[in-house]
Structure to design on (251 residues):
């Protein structure tokens, strides 16, 4: 399928299932906004609620958000907020991928439509190689590594050190990002939420993201720039055989 001159965007909400407030933000941004896809964190108490919501909603593609831990920048240094397994242990990583994939299937009754990871831990070894095996076996797109889908993480309201960038996650900021998207398919990640019910570095920004994603001016920007919304499972050029047949880029 020729994509030249066409622009498609998958708006994927990370952290689905991490808390009730995150679930409310993602559901609202899907029903009233531009979110077309979400990635499920299966280890958290609100995961069952998120999975139940996705049932019977094929317009919302649902992927696995592999969760191996979280790190926060506090008092001038990075610290571990929690650790699931030692991420340098190849066997432990492989076993945990299987556990979380099995949990996803128990919760949803199906395979994920895509895979990514919390805080992008799959960009480093040995997580990367372990996930390569999984996505090849299941013919699923893996964030950053499927050449059919460009990843855009620019809609994020913090610096690396945790300083807020509310202008980036404004209507104007998102419109600027959309205007700069290239032809083809782009996955735009987001982190909407409500209620600040998480112990995490990214808290206050979630409510603003939810509001912006639901703002009608954003849909007008999509129309103005000729961008079509799609998901990992429905719409645009993303037929399953096209995703699954591509080789993953090493590095």
């Amino acid at each position: 399928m020729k994509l030249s001159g066409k622009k498609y965007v998958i708006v994927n909400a990370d952290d689905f299932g991490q808390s009730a407030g995150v679930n409310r933000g993602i559901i609202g941004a899907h029903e009233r906004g531009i979110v077309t896809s979400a990635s499920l964190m299966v280890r958290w108490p609100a995961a069952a609620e998120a999975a139940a919501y996705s049932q019977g909603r094929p317009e919302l593609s649902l992927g696995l958000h592999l969760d191996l831990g979280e790190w926060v920048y506090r008092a001038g240094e990075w610290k571990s907020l929690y650790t699931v397994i030692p991420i340098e242990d190849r066997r432990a990583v492989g076993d945990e991928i299987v556990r979380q994939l099995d949990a996803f299937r128990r919760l949803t009754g199906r395979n994920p439509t895509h895979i990514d990871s919390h805080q992008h831990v799959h960009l480093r070894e040995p997580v990367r190689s372990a996930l390569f095996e999984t996505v090849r076996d299941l013919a699923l797109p893996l964030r950053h590594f499927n050449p059919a889908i460009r990843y855009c993480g620019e809609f994020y309201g913090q610096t690396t050190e945790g300083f807020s960038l509310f202008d980036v996650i404004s209507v104007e900021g998102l419109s600027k990002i959309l205007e700069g998207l290239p032809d083809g398919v782009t996955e735009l990640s987001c982190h909407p939420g409500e209620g600040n019910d998480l112990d995490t570095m990214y808290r206050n920004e979630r409510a603003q993201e939810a509001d912006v994603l639901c703002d009608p001016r954003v849909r007008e920007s999509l129309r103005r720039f000729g961008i079509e919304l799609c998901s990992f499972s429905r719409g645009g050029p993303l037929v399953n055989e096209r995703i699954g047949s591509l080789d993953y880029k090493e590095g």
In short: The chain is about 35% helix and 20% strand. The CA atoms of residues 58 and 195 lie 27 Å apart. The mean pLDDT is 91. The longest strand covers residues 7-16.
